[in-house]
Amino acid sequence: MFIKSEHIYLRALEKADIEILYTIENDRSVWQISNTLTPFSKDILSQYLENAYQDIYTTKQLRLLICLNETNEPIGTIDLFEFEPLHQRIGIGVLVFENYRKNGYAFDSIELVKEYAFNTLLVNQLYCNIGATNTSSQLLFKKCGFTEIGIKKQWNKISRTEFEDEILFQCIN
């Protein structure tokens, strides 16, 4: 077990998680958020899992599974990415599976990762980028102490002819 709250814990990925990753990475509904345009094969994800043990200082990223304390069931992922030790900052993203949303699990996950980032990685700030129409994520990160600091105009292409603004949030220790 990695770090935990009353209802959830975060743990490192294991080889047995290949089916969960395969489902997440090939879910077209989240491709826009993750800037993905093509599906991932199990072979590619297997290679990723083989290297997932590497230190965050080497890979500059860390993906953790969010699991329920009572059942050990995975209910989502939380990612740290673009780790910049020199500048003491790191990006954060969270995905809770649809049937587990609105239970406070994303909030708990973000709070646990904030504690890890500030107290273990010793970063000065966390940041995230959220689409302008994703108001539920905006409210979530605000509730977790993040502040809106800017808008990237027409940042993400959402259809053949439409673009969406992206809002940048940060949480400074």
What does this structure look like?
The chain has 173 residues and is an alpha+beta fold. The protein has a single domain, classed as Gcn5-related N-acetyltransferase (GNAT) (Aminopeptidase), CATH 3.40.630. The chain contains six helices and eight strands; from the N terminus they run E-E-H-H-H-H-E-E-E-H-E-H-E-E. It has helices spanning 18-25, 31-34, 42-51, 56-59, 105-119, 135-143, and strands at 3-4, 8-12, 62-68, 74-84, 89-96, 125-131, 147-157, 163-172. An eight-stranded mixed beta sheet has the order 1-2-3-4-5-6-8-7. The longest helix is centred in the middle third of the chain and has 15 residues, at 105-119. The chain is globular. It starts with a strand and ends with a strand. The model has no long low-confidence stretch (mean pLDDT 85).
Give a short synopsis of this structure.
With about 170 residues, the chain is α+β, with helices and mostly antiparallel strands. The chain has helices at about 20-25, 30-35, 40-50, 55-60, 105-120, 135-145, and strands at about 5, 10, 60-70, 75-85, 90-95, 125-130, 145-155, 165-170. Helix 5 links the parallel strand 5 (about 90-95) and strand 6.
Give the tags:
alpha+beta, 173 residues, single chain, Aminopeptidase
Look at the structure and give the CATH class: Alpha Beta
Order of SSEs? EEHHHHEEEHEHEE
Strand segment count: 8
Distance linking N and C termini: 25 Å
Question: How many whole angstroms does the radius of gyration measure?
Answer: 16 Å
Q: What's the mean pLDDT score?
A: 85
